[in-house]
Amino acid sequence: MDINRLKDTCRILKGNTEPPQIPAPPITMPKPIPKPSDEPETIEIGRIHTENILNFTDIWTDVIEVDDVEAQFKDSDYDSLPVFMDDNHLYNLGFFYVKINPRCSPLEFLGLLVMIPFERLQTLAWRVSRTPP
Question: Whole-prediction pTM value?
Answer without folding.
Answer: 0.49
